[in-house]
Amino acid sequence: MKIIILGCGRVGTHLAQNMDAAGHDVTVIDRNRESFARLGSNYGGKMILGTGIDEDVLRKAGIEDADAFIAVTNGDNTNAMAAQIAQHVFYVPRVVARLYDPIRQETYRLLGLDTVCSTVMGAERIREMVGA
Q1: Count of domains forming the chain
Q2: Position with higher pLDDT, 72 vs 122
Q3: What CATH number did the domain enclosing 94 receive?
Q4: pTM of structure
């Protein structure tokens, strides 16, 4: 599977390392060159310097042939916009955007975006752990 990950923070790095180790063709996009150091020496995928809302950067990453696009930067707006570009301009079959703000989650869902809200997921898991 050809996977493009926007954002090389903790989540993006973890995803990229795991998907690369599983044999997928992984490309990570980040606007900060130093972020790629997090990937470590075992990472065998590609790294593209740039912003994930720039169509030329996305093409350079191979989005036209991507099976999945995952936006996990630290900005909800960037993630949503990049996901919409991947979905509506490049017709990537699987697109997921991470969000922090639970209020935005429903709005983006109405726009047809699959989202993961770490705030909601974390709160639900903690509630389960304390048995409430």
Answers
A1: 1
A2: 72
A3: 3.40.50.720
A4: 0.93
